[in-house]
Task: inverse folding
C-alpha cells in the first residue's frame, strides 16, 4: 500500500498556537493514558459486544480495562524501546499476509514516550549527534518511527478503531516537527549555539526562536525579510559535528514530508545570519529614496561601508553558504541544497545591488567619481565568483543528467550584476566628461593675487592624478561608454587617454585666458610659469598620469615654461639692463656726462624700487622654480651693475653726492633679487657701508 503522509496540523502557521507552545518551553510531559482511557474503554467494550477483534487487540484492550482498578499506570514511565519494538512489528506486519494489530493504549503510550524523549532531550546538545555506526540519534529515530506510524494509521479506511490513535500520534508528530524546527533554526543562526548549550548558556531550546514570527506564512511574504538573526559578529564556520546534526535534522524533516518548512527555516536562519554579519561590518539597509536624498558627506561613508560589506558577501559569505547548503542537504536530492543557496544568493545580492542602483541615480558630481569607480570594481570582480558557482552547478547537473533551474537563476544574478556594472560605468564616464563643462564654466574675472597657482589648476591636477590611479578601470569604463566624437577617427586610440588629454588642453587654454587678466605682462608670465610648472611636476611625479599623458606632452610643456621664463626676463629686466649700458650718451669723447649719469642712476634706483615693491609680492611657490628665476636674474643683472658701478662710481664726489645717487651696492642688488617671489613686498634697503 502506498504511504500517505500525515496531514500537517496548523501548528506551523498560527502564531497563537506557537506562542503557547513556546510559553511551555517545550517541556512536553507525557499525556497520561487516563486522559483517553474512558474513550478507549467504551470503544473496546463496543468491539467486544460485536464479537471482539483479533486476539492481540482484545488482549491489550482487556489489559487496559483491568488496569483501571489497579494503581494508575501514569505513575510508570513508558518504555520507549519496548513500545518501539511493538510499533516496528505493527509497521512490518502491515506488509505481510497476516497484518499485526496494535491497540489504542499502545499508540497512546508510544506517543507519550516520544513526548517524554523530547522533554528529556531538551538542553542536551548530543540529542542530534549521529552514532558511531552512522545510526540516527534516539530522538531522531523516535521521530522517524512516529512519522511512519502516523502514515500507516492514516492509510486505514474511515471508521477504523484507530481514530483516537491517529489524532494522538499525528498531534505528537506535529509537536515533534515544531521542536525539530526550532532547534534547526537556532543551530543554523549561530554555530556557537552548540558550544553555548554545553556551557548551559542557552536555556530553552526555543528561547532564540522567539525572536522570529510564525515560521511559514503561506499567504505570502519573503522568508528572507524576516527579522532577527542574532548578534552582529560574523559567525565562525560550522564545525563538522554541527553540520552532521543539521543534516540529520534536515533529513528527518524532509523524510516526514516537511521539506517546504525545512527549506524555509534554513532560508530564514541563514538570511538572518548574513544580515547580522553585514551589520557587524556597519552596513545597514537603506531604501533607494533614502539614498537619493542623502547628502554626499553621509553617503560617501555609506559607500565605503557597502564596498567592505559587498566584498565580504562575495568572497566569504556566499562561499560559506554554498558549502553549508551542500553539506546539510547532502543526504537528499542535491538540487534542494543548490536551490536554497540560489535563494540566499539572490536575496543577498539584490539587497546590496539596490544600493548601487540608488547611488547611480544620484546627481552627478566630480567628487563622487572615485567611490563610483570603487563600486564598479567591486561589482565587476564579483562576476568570476558567480561564474564559479554556475560552473559548479552545471557540472553537478550534468552528472545528475537532469534539468535544474539553479544555473538559470545564478545566470540571472550575473545578468543583474552586469546591468548594475553598466550603470555605474556609465555614471563614472559621465562624471569624468563633466570636467570639461566645469573648466569652461570657470571663467572668473578676478586674477589670482601674485600670479600664484590657480585653485582650478590644483584641483584638476590632483583630481586627474588620483583618477589615473584608476587607469585600468577607467580605460575599461571608457571602452564601454566612450564618446565617439573624441576617438572615432583613430581605431586604436584609448578613449580614456583621449578624454584626459581633452581636459588637459582645456585647462591649458583656460589658464592662457586667465593670464590675460593681469595688466603686467611680466606677472602674466609668472602666472603661466607657476601653473605650467605645477602641472608638469604633478605629471612627472605620478607614473600613472605620466603614462597616460606621454613624454611628448611633457616636453612641449617644458618648452612653454622656458618661453614664459624668457618673456618674464625680457619684460622686467631688459629695461633694467638698458639703463646699465653706456650707449654713447653717458660718455662723449671720453668725457662722462654727469647729468646723464645722474639720471641713469635715478632711473635704475626707481626701477629697482618698483621691482622690489611689486615683484616681492609675487608668488612662486615651487622652490626649484623660485631658485631658477633668482639665479638666472642675478647671473645677468648683478655683473652688469657691478661693472657699471666700477666704471662710473668715481664720477661722484665721496660723501653726500655718492650716497644720493648710488643707493645700492652689488651685494644690495643680490639681496633684493634673493627676496623676490616670496610674497612679501618691502622697500629698497639702505646702502650697505
Result:
Amino acid at each position: 500500500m502506498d504511504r500517505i503522509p500525515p496531514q500537517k496540523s496548523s501548528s506551523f502557521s498560527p502564531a497563537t498556537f506557537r506562542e503557547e507552545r513556546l510559553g511551555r518551553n517545550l517541556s512536553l510531559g507525557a499525556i497520561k493514558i487516563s486522559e483517553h482511557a474512558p474513550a478507549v474503554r467504551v470503544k473496546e467494550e463496543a468491539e467486544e459486544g460485536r464479537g471482539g477483534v483479533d486476539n492481540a487487540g482484545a488482549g491489550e484492550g482487556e489489559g487496559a480495562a483491568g488496569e483501571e482498578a489497579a494503581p494508575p499506570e501514569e505513575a510508570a514511565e513508558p518504555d520507549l524501546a519496548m513500545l518501539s519494538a511493538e510499533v516496528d512489528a505493527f509497521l512490518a506486519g502491515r506488509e505481510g499476509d497476516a497484518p499485526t494489530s496494535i491497540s489504542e493504549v499502545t499508540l497512546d503510550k508510544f506517543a507519550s514516550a516520544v513526548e517524554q524523549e523530547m522533554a528529556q532531550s531538551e538542553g542536551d546538545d548530543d540529542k542530534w549527534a549521529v552514532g558511531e555506526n552512522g545510526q540516527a540519534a534516539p530522538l531522531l529515530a523516535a521521530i522517524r518511527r512516529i512519522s511512519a506510524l502516523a502514515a500507516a494509521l492514516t492509510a486505514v479506511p474511515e471508521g477504523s478503531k484507530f481514530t483516537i490513535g491517529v489524532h494522538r500520534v499525528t498531534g505528537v508528530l506535529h509537536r515533534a516537527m515544531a521542536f525539530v524546527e526550532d532547534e534547526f533554526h537556532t543551530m543554523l543562526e549561530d554555530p556557537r549555539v552548540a558550544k553555548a548549550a554545553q556551557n548551559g548558556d542557552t536555556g530553552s531550546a526555543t528561547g532564540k526562536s522567539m525572536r522570529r514570527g510564525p515560521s511559514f506564512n503561506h499567504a505570502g511574504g519573503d522568508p528572507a525579510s524576516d527579522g532577527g538573526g542574532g548578534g552582529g559578529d560574523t559567525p565562525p564556520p560550522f564545525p563538522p559535528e554541527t553540520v552532521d546534526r543539521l543534516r540529520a535534522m534536515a533529513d528527518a524533516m524532509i523524510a516526514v514530508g516537511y521539506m517546504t518548512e525545512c527549506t524555509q527555516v534554513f532560508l530564514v536562519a541563514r538570511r538572518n545570519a548574513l544580515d547580522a554579519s553585514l551589520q557587524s561590518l556597519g552596513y545597514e539597509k537603506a531604501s533607494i529614496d533614502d539614498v537619493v536624498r542623502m547628502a554626499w558627506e553621509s553617503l560617501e561613508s555609506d559607500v565605503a561601508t557597502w564596498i567592505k560589506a559587498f566584498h565580504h558577501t562575495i568572497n566569504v559569505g556566499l562561499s560559506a553558504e554554498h558549502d553549508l547548503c551542500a553539506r546539510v542537504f547532502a543526504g537528499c536530492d542535491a538540487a534542494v541544497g543548490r536551490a536554497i543557496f540560489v535563494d540566499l544568493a539572490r536575496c543577498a545580492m539584490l539587497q546590496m545591488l539596490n544600493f548601487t542602483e540608488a547611488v547611480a541615480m544620484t546627481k552627478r558630481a566630480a567628487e563622487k567619481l572615485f567611490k563610483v569607480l570603487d563600486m564598479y570594481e567591486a561589482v565587476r570582480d564579483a562576476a568570476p565568483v558567480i561564474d564559479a558557482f554556475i560552473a559548479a552547478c552545471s557540472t553537478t547537473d550534468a552528472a545528475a543528467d537532469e534539468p535544474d533551474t539553479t544555473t538559470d537563476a545564478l545566470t540571472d544574478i550575473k545578468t543583474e550584476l552586469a546591468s548594475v556594472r553598466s550603470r555605474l560605468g556609465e555614471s563614472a564616464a559621465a562624471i569624468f566628461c563633466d570636467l570639461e563643462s566645469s573648466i569652461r564654466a570657470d571663467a572668473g574675472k578676478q586674477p589670482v593675487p601674485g600670479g600664484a597657482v590657480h585653485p582650478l589648476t590644483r584641483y584638476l591636477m590632483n583630481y586627474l592624478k588620483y583618477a589615473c590611479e584608476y587607469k585600468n578601470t577607467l580605460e575599461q569604463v571608457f571602452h564601454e561608454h566612450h564618446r565617439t566624437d573624441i576617438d572615432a577617427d583613430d581605431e586604436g586610440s584609448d578613449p580614456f587617454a583621449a578624454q584626459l588629454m581633452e581636459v588637459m588642453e582645456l585647462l591649458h587654454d583656460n589658464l592662457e585666458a586667465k593670464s590675460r587678466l593681469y595688466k603686467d605682462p611680466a606677472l602674466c608670465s609668472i602666472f603661466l610659469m607657476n601653473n605650467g610648472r605645477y602641472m608638469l611636476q604633478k605629471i612627472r611625479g605620478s607614473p600613472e598620469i605620466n603614462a597616460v599623458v606621454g613624454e611628448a606632452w611633457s616636453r612641449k610643456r617644458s618648452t612653454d615654461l622656458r618661453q614664459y621664463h624668457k618673456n618674464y626676463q625680457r619684460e622686467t629686466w631688459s629695461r633694467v639692463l638698458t639703463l646699465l649700458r653706456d650707449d654713447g650718451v653717458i660718455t662723449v669723447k671720453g668725457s662722462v656726462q654727469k647729468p646723464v649719469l645722474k639720471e641713469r642712476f635715478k632711473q635704475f634706483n626707481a626701477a629697482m624700487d618698483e621691482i622690489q615693491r611689486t615683484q616681492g609680492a609675487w608668488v612662486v611657490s615651487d622652490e626649484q622654480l623660485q631658485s631658477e628665476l633668482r639665479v638666472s636674474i642675478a647671473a645677468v643683472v648683478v655683473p652688469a651693475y657691478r661693472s657699471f658701478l666700477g666704471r662710473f662710481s668715481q664720477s661722484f664726489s665721496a660723501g653726500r653726492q655718492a650716497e644720493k645717487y648710488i643707493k645700492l651696492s652689488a651685494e644690495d642688488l643680490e639681496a633684493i633679487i634673493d627676496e623676490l617671489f616670496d610674497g612679501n613686498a618691502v622697500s629698497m634697503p639702505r646702502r650697505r657701508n
Summary: The mean pLDDT is 77. The two ends are 128 Å apart (CA to CA). The chain has four domains: 10-216, 281-416, 442-567, 580-674.
